[in-house]
Amino acid sequence: MNSILSKFLNEFNSSRSYTENYTGDNMSKDEALKILGLNPEASQNEINKAYQNLMKLVHPDKGGSEYFAQKLNAARDRLLKR
């Protein structure tokens, strides 16, 4: 899981401003899958599990950042079509 987090941090840390607010509507399905480290056939359970595991690492209350938490929320929402 740490390699997925490293890729996530490297890819998105330098690509966008932390002050931007992202929603699932602005995110492609491919981007959402990459963020959560999933394949296109991932089940709802796998999406939620990947989301929960990564959120434990990047949640602002745990020393992470609001930006990464927003990206995870958007990725989950995009894949679950919320």
UniProtKB/TrEMBL annotation:
Q: In the UniProt record, which is one GO cellular component term?
A: mitochondrial inner membrane
Q: Where in the cell is it found?
A: Mitochondrion inner membrane
Keywords, A to Z, come to: Membrane, Mitochondrion, Mitochondrion inner membrane, Transmembrane, Transmembrane helix
What the entry lists under InterPro entries is as follows: DnaJ_domain, J_dom_sf
Could you tell me which SUPFAM superfamilies the record lists for this protein?
Chaperone J-domain
Looking up SMART domains in the UniProt record yields: DnaJ
Topology with respect to the bilayer: Single-pass membrane protein
Q: Which residues form the J domain?
A: 31-82
> What does the sequence similarity comment in the record state about its family?
Belongs to the TIM14 family.
Protein name, UniProt field: Molecular chaperone DnaJ
